User: Fold this.
Amino acid sequence: MLHVMNRREVLGSIAASTVLATTTLAHAQAKKGAPAPGPFTPVAAGSNKVMPLSFNPAKLPGLSEKLLTSHHQNNYGGAVKNLNAVELELDKVTKDTPGFQVGALRERELTYANSVYLHEAYFENLGGNGKASGEFAKALDKQFGSAARWEELVRATAMSLGGGSGWVVIALSARSNDLRIVGTGGHSQALAAGAPIFVLDMFEHAYAIDYGSAHAKYIDAFFANLNWSALDKRWQAARAKR
Assistant:
């Protein structure tokens, strides 16, 4: 005989299905090594903090403590300070705020936010021994054919920005799910929805104290101090979100 569920049975079935689906998703995430999503916690305007260096700036061969400290405190620290100031100004915006003022604040917000984010990634991927290892290194070889080839492309991109300003980024593309080398002339150009893995600062403040205009020597020093462990962690985290 066909059994027709009553309301209590239907609700019980739905609840059981929800629990099963949640458990299955959590199990799948754990199996992939993906971290469970954290709580949604909006950050208050003007509350950005300067992140400390993860390495001893006196111990990076080819990059002086004076250069690294100045870069961290003045350029990165200045970007954090300016971002906070802009966020607080945007918090005051109303429907009567002139459009040109809102537009200018939004442009500055994007510039400073990207500067903060890229500087943090840049400093985080320093402090290593420069020896390629891990899954990200394998992914680079697979994407570009060899370690020599991807490094050649990165160095050529960096050299094209020498004497000016910009960033070289290797990003995981959300659209094509592969790696892309991006050369930007400022803070507000980026690969849309790309997750930065490798970040090289090519603004003059990143090398002029040590090398003047000899940016090729700075690029050599950067590669010699590249932290592949940090790059690998970023790669794993970015892949887990795909």
Remarks:
- The first strand starts at residue 167 and ends at 172.
